[in-house]
Design goal:
The protein is of the alpha+beta class. The chain has a domain at 7-186: 3-Layer(aba) Sandwich (Aminopeptidase). Helices cover 31% and strands 15% of the residues. The chain has helices at 7-10, 36-57, 67-71, 135-147, 161-171, 214-221, 265-274, 279-287, 293-301, 304-307, and strands at 15-18, 76-82, 92-101, 104-107, 113-116, 119-126, 155-157, 176-177, 183-186. The strands form two sheets. Strands 1-2-3-6-7-9-8 form a seven-stranded mixed β-sheet, sandwiched between helices. It has a two-stranded antiparallel sheet with strand order 4-5. A hairpin with a 5-residue loop joins strand 4 and strand 5. The longest helix has 22 residues, at 36-57. The radius of gyration is 48 Å and the shape is elongated. Residues 1-190 form the N-acetyltransferase domain. Its EC number is 2.3.1.108. It catalyses: L-lysyl-[alpha-tubulin] + acetyl-CoA = N(6)-acetyl-L-lysyl-[alpha-tubulin] + CoA + H(+).
Amino acid sequence: MEFPFDVDALFPERITVLDQHLRPPARRPGTTTPARVDLQQQIMTILDELGKASAKAQNLSAPITSASRMQSNRHVVYILKDSSARPAGKGAIIGFIKVGYKKLFVLDDREAHNEVEPLCILDFYIHESVQRHGHGRELFQYMLQKERVEPHQLAIDRPSPKLLKFLNKHYNLETTVPQVNNFVIFEGFFAHQHPPARKLPPKRAEGDIKPYSSSDREFLKVAVEPPWPLNRAPRRATPPAHPPPRSSSLGNSPERGPLRPFVPEQELLRSLRLCPPHPTARLLLAADPGGSPAQRRRTSSLPRSEESRY
């Protein structure tokens, strides 16, 4: 696949690996370096055209590979170029393979559900003009070495008949494990507990879980006094030898102590005598023609014969 810009200068190596950032690879020393924005735009153009060609070859309604999809997902694409084909000295692109880790629920041989996160083949395309020349195996083998994974440990998203034949021819992958989704896995996928698959984070042991901090635990150890009047419950020095039997009736209330301390009658009267009279009471006494209370007491104590003198 040819482009109007220099592909050979854009991708110095035969196979280039790109992630979601789509950063241009380092260029060879001595070559002119265009603006970085122009280089990234060229990479985006290559990805869009490769995605369209792959969708057309697989009879898909829309491309599943594009620059925008790459930037929004944590996928990796391997691009294979042809350095020998130099139309006007610009090179050409042979094909690509896109991979990425996905969390899947797959069935094993016993039809048990397993939650795994294996490396998945998401898109694979070799240009029609250079197929059956070993380019597909070269690119696929390079990806396996880079990702450190075996062919039977992969999950393939909606593989085409050509891809299934390719895997059977070069890697003896023939027997598949039936699934209820669009992914295809082969016999041996569950062997060795999937070393390349990303394992889900292990659950923390119950002993390591701390529901509250150490300061909270110290606070819970301190006895908190209940509010009044709950704190006025009677305290007995020694329990009685024979406590009275308690009734089992639900209507009986528990025994409660006095809400306020008992004050003797003499002390209460003494406090009332010492209490100063209210100003209003003084005005009333001043306006009373009968005089003060002391005078009324003296008057009432005299005999009636002497009262008539006044």
